[in-house]
UniProtKB/TrEMBL annotation:
It holds the Pfam family CbiJ. Keywords: Cobalamin biosynthesis, Oxidoreductase. NCBIfam families: precor6x_red, PRK08057.1-2. This is Precorrin-6A/cobalt-precorrin-6A reductase. It comes from Kaistia geumhonensis. Pathway: Cofactor biosynthesis; adenosylcobalamin biosynthesis. PROSITE patterns: COBK_CBIJ. Its EC number is 1.3.1.106, 1.3.1.54.
Length: 254
């Protein structure tokens, strides 16, 4: 019987990891998606959609499905899911590893203002109106109703349902990766004065930071929440190596 793996996904890295796992004989992988994206990309492994019912529900699933190892490859800001995974793996008695892309670091010429949370960032938006490009995903866009005086341009993969206070905002539906040229053109076309983003890391959306630097714009950055106490790696190769030591693929014919 193949070694069963569960990947908690939703990121570009999770999709790439699923492709690697699918190509390794002796692994039987399942990719779990939260279901927040209405038009997810095709995946390389069987997909399970929806929540588990917290840490207890996930632990029950791990046991009932004979999962040998758990890989957390969710968004760096999915703090609750990562914490539940850590607890569920402990209860189920199986190894767990987190694949987390390195955070972005400010470079020479950057003008970043960091905030510990999105709530703190919105509170700091008091003052005269500015034109802001917001790239924090559709789930949290409504929070900016707390600072409705600004001219917002919200970009997300899927449509955003904005509250009445933000009825004047512009929404753009696009999926990365984005180029430096396209990001620079976008910011110039909308006369953007500052970029609002989360420190998600990765290359797919890095160009917006480079564009902001080139245009001399301020970047309002939400820093990552605390990470759970589980092993963390930064590459797919490291995940494969972790699994080879803690949950190796079942050898056929043995």
């Amino acid at each position: 019987m193949a070694t069963r793996l569960l990947i908690l996904g939703g990121t570009t890295e999770a999709r790439a990891l699923a492709g690697r796992i699918a190509a390794i004989a002796g692994y039987d992988g399942v990719l779990s998606l939260a279901g927040r994206t209405e038009r997810p990309l095709p995946q390389h492994l069987p997909v399970r959609t929806g929540g588990f019912g917290g840490a207890a529900g996930l632990a029950s699933y791990l046991k009932s499905e004979s999962i040998a190892a758990l890989v957390v490859a969710t968004h760096p800001f999915a703090a609750r899911i990562a914490a539940n995974a850590a607890e569920a793996a402990r209860v189920a008695g199986i190894p767990v590893v987190r694949l987390s892309r390195p955070p972005w670091r400010a470079a020479k010429g950057d003008n970043w203002r960091s905030h510990p949370s999105l709530e703190a960032l919105v509170q700091g938006l008091a003052g005269p109106p500015r034109r802001l490009l917001v790239t924090i995903g559709r789930q949290d866009a409504a929070r900016f109703a707390g600072a409705p005086q600004h001219a917002y341009v919200f970009r997300s993969i899927e449509p955003i349902d904005l509250p009445p206070q933000l009825g004047h905002a512009l929404t753009i539906e696009e999926r990365g990766p984005f180029s430096l040229a396209s990001e620079t053109e976008l910011m110039r076309r909308h006369a953007i004065e500052a970029l609002v983003t989360k420190n998600s890391g990765g290359d797919a959306t890095r160009a917006k930071l480079d564009a902001a630097r080139g245009l001399g714009l301020e970047v309002l950055m939400v820093e990552r929440p605390p990470a759970p106490d589980i092993p963390e790696v930064a590459s797919i190769a490291d995940v494969i190596d972790f699994l080879a030591h803690h949950a190796p693929p079942e050898k056929r014919g043995v």
